Amino acid sequence: MRVPRNLTPVALALAFGFLIAAPLPVQAVNPTAIFSFQTMYGVDGPFVGPDHPIRGIPGDELPWDIGAGTNGELDTNGHIVVHVRGLVFKNDPSVPANLRGINDAAEFRAVVSCLTERSETETGRKRVTTMGFPQRPPATPTSMPW
Fold first, then answer.
1. Is residue 141 part of a domain?
2. Number of domains the chain is built from
3. Which residues contact 109 (CB under 8 A, 6 or more apart)?
4. Do 19 and 62 contact (CB within 8 A), yes or no?
């Protein structure tokens, strides 16, 4: 997926549920990266559901947990790479028992929401969404043992 070069990333989210990314100093990871992260946070609390969308994108209808080993980056050529492990529904009373600890999404998407420079005095917003890509199922039906 190519993202236009004039974008400055502000948030990264998956279309089925938001993940809040904690940026790293990009030179430490890849000198061509303009944004990189090694931490993500699953949809939870007020971000569950449509009441508190982030840049117009509502959260999923159920809360999510995310495991370690998650990272990604957006480079100066507009290529985005995201590695996600252990993204599953939370072990929470609001989640039906049969969905806890699993991920039922058939595919994933990444969203980059950016502020752009329209002129010396004017900014704008741009949002680019990747095409869907299939998830690779874990070896067992649950990836988070509870």
1. no
2. 1
3. 14, 15, 16, 129, 130, 131, 132, 133
4. no
